[in-house]
Amino acid sequence: MITRRTLWAGAATLIGAAAMLVPVATASAATPCAPAWSATQVYTGGAAVSYQSKNYSAKWWTQGDVPSASGQWGVWADKGACDGGSEPSTPPSSPSTPPTSPSTPPTGPSGDKWVVGYFAEWGVYGRNYHVKNIDTSGSASKVTHILYAFGNSTGGRCSIGDSYADYEKAYTADQSVDGVADTWDQPLRGSFNQLRKLKKKYPHLKVIYSIGGWTWSGGFTQAAQNPAAFADSCYNMIEDPRWADVFDGIDIDWEYPNACGLQCDSSGPDAFNKVISALRTKFGQSYLITAAITADGSTGGKIDLTDYATAAQKLTKVFPMTYDYFGAWANTGPTAPHSPLTSYPGIPIAGFYSDAAIQKLKSKGIPSDKLLLGVGFYGRGWTGVTQTEPGGSATGAAPGTYEAGIEDYKVLKNSCPATGTVAGTAYAKCGSNWWSYDTPATIAGKMAYAKQQNLGGAFFWEFSGDTGNGELISAISGNL
């Protein structure tokens, strides 16, 4: 069974200049002060407060978030200096738990924005998460695309990852999307058939077959040596007559071209482009071809080692994996958020945050509307931690349900609720464990950033980490 992939297996040593964000303009000092901010008051979008002689406006639901610490992509918008306001009491060191749902009901993706979710092939086993759960959680109407993860790249060819989960497993009526049980002699069963049923129920959905991932990227080195043969094998696998109608695209998740992931590749900076070009030639211009790529924004880092910009000209969308920046592979810490949107004082590695990656990719000529922002539906954590704020020492990885150092959001929201925010994401200290993860409130902030940057949408890893009613997906869809 494949484990959840990790962008960096060890602490990197790359150091780069952090992209700077443009400060928000402030208003005139003659403006009257709004009511003073209160640490215990619940505020909804549009609420006005004053704090330390400045006015602020809430962008969404908030409680306990100090206005002056919000930053450009935080919950509070700085409206400038004011005159005559009273000062609130000293703010708490650990803000109250963020909300479990956005203040306004989700309305679904607007316009041509993509909301893309990974469905993990192996989730049908221990996680007991099936295609039907996408429907019953209310998420099917809120996403636009599903990434089916993963197919293998072994030997430089596309191949099925798990035939039993993919097309052999028989579903009973209560497990099936349409309530109809599989029969022993039907030509297609498994998740592929369930995806077919889901697409019939939700005709707007597109399904993309993702190849590679952290564990199965080893074959891409050989694929780059004969890209045409690789493309032929992918076409033959995805367009198999048994399930050709299920898939609308192919996604290449090569971790990482001309760099190291679980294995190291030295195919050169043009290898990735050669593979993508061969796929585009084979599948044609109308087929969806996407790629999940590194989000290493450091100078001389993984983005700089491959010509992603040329390849992007042939890609429909690009998914920089803006999560897993930090984790308990650095088992003694320092504790750090695994998916920071911005930099922050004390960040362990310069350039390891989402905005650095987005700005670097844009600077290389990739259009902003081709880029999607990545969100993890899980937390990464340490144990043996005494410091509440990021930057503390640890003794190892915090216990997790399936793997040490990692846990689903749906578990953490109850077992270790968020106690603070940093760099546009949340963290939590409970006992000696320290976790970082995104919440509906921090996701709302990230979607505000995605809109401001004119990104093409957002994607997430993966469906089963969300709550049974899909509250994180609702936060993406409702705020994008």
UniProtKB/TrEMBL annotation:
Keywords (A to Z) from UniProt: Carbohydrate metabolism, Chitin degradation, Glycosidase, Hydrolase, Polysaccharide degradation, Signal
Signal peptide positions (record): 1-29
Membrane spanning stretches: none
Region annotation Disordered: where it falls in the sequence: 77-110
Keyword flag Hydrolase: yes
Species assigned in the record: Actinoplanes octamycinicus
Gene3D superfamilies: 3.10.50.10, Carbohydrate-binding module superfamily 5/12, Glycosidases
Domain GH18, chain residue ranges per copy: 113-480
E.C. numbers: 3.2.1.14
Family indicated by similarity: Belongs to the glycosyl hydrolase 18 family.
CDD domains in the record: ChiC_BD, GH18_chitinase
GO cellular component labels: extracellular region
Signal is among the record's keywords: yes
Reaction catalysis annotation: Random endo-hydrolysis of N-acetyl-beta-D-glucosaminide (1->4)-beta-linkages in chitin and chitodextrins
GO terms of molecular function: carbohydrate binding; chitin binding; endochitinase activity
Ranges annotated as biased composition (Pro residues): 89-108
GO biological-process terms attached to the record: carbohydrate metabolic process; chitin catabolic process
Protein name: chitinase
